[in-house]
Amino acid sequence: MPGDQSLPPTGAAHASALSDTLQAVVIGGGTGAPVSIRALLALGVHTSAVVAMADDGGSTGLLREHAGVAAPGDIRKCLAAMAAKPDGAWARAFRQRFSYVNDHTLGNLMLTALTDATGSFPEAVKLCGELLGARGRVYPSTLENVQLIGVTRDGQHLCGQATICASDTALARVSLVPERPEAYRPALDALRVADLIVLGPGSLFTSIIPNLLVPGVLDAIRENSGTRVFLCSLADMQGETWGLSAAELVEALIDHGMADLLDVVVVHEPPTHHHTGNATASFEAITGETIGSVAARATRTSPIRQVVFNEVLARRIEAHGPALIRRNLVDPLRPTWHDVGILSEVLEGIMDACPSLRKSKTNSRG
Question: Where are the domains of the chain?
């Protein structure tokens, strides 16, 4: 992506010395988690991802329905972000989408075929990671066939991740069916030992929170002695968070079990001279991408709104306990995306400043 840029040589050398022993876990999915993965890998941090398994739209939904496979789409995106050569032939082929074959991606088909060949979805993920030379591990939060249920702020009940994304009203709560799916143990192990846990950025109710609903995930985060960071979204592009402020996004996490578990919240704060014209353009005009389905039809005719943040909301976030970091995080070429280079600098600053991370580095070096 345009924001994928290496840190300057001095910064890169410092980052390597700073973080060569640190373990980070990104919690999320969709297009957001890969941004954090790339930012952490640019710093030389050993990076894993714990990914939601509730996706039921598009290629992933078809494969779940017809092949009985665990949701492959968000796993595929994280593996591609971890590829040794993200722009190499294998990674590009892995991302390739075939419009004439139900819009499936090769990566989704490979994960499905390898699951069938090995009898194990985790083994399929591992083999695809080896093929790509992935610089980290990707873990599903559960292997069970889960469905996401949502309740909007005006009381509507919605079933399924794709339907929730198309909501006309912001969500209040989500839950899983079955309510208590079994967690994937290696995901819990990674969360317990991580020096840094990064939630997001990305779709709050459909990519991040579904992981927290799996029994054991919140306990693993609570048992973790590292630093827990939430990267707030830049803009509303989907119905699920439409109109919610930065403080309301943080409070939604708290309402779903993260009370007293957030150490740092990172929020986009544009410079005072920021021109907001791009933020009112359609998603398709800004990104050149098509996002399909009912949600997309509504979005294309509606402005994208920047997530509201101001001094009152800043105090509201800080009242919940986390430190607040404000930066202009926007990728100038894709204003709804975080700039990977800037995000790397922010995460480097967090690692450099947090006592728990300094202690981890000291202990690891004897």
Answer: 9-364
Half-sphere exposure of 127 (CA within 13 A, CB side): 16
pTM of the model as a whole = 0.85
Q: CA 12 from chain center: how many Å? A: 24
DSSP state of 258: I
- Which are the contacts of 333, defined by CB distance < 8 A and separation ≥ 6? 2, 3
What CATH number should be reported for the domain whose range is 9-364? 3.40.50.10680
Torsion of CA 96, 190, 263, 27, to 10 degrees: 20
Q: What is the pLDDT of residue 12?
A: 44
Which pLDDT belongs to residue 271? 79
The pair of three-digit structure tokens given for residue 244, joined into one six-digit string: 């919610």
Query: How much is the pLDDT for 19?
Result: 52
Residues of the chain with pLDDT under 70: 1-20, 237-238, 272-303, 355-366
Residue 338: phi and psi, rounded to 5, are -70, 140
* The predicted structure's pLDDT at residue 85: 95
The tokens describing 263, both together, are 């150490």
Distance CA 19, CA 41 (A): 10
Residue pair 146/181 in contact by the 8 Å Cβ criterion: yes
HEC sequence for 160-221: CHHHHHCCCCCEEEEEEECCCCCECHHHHHHHHHCCEEEECCCCHHHHHHHHHCCCCHHHHH
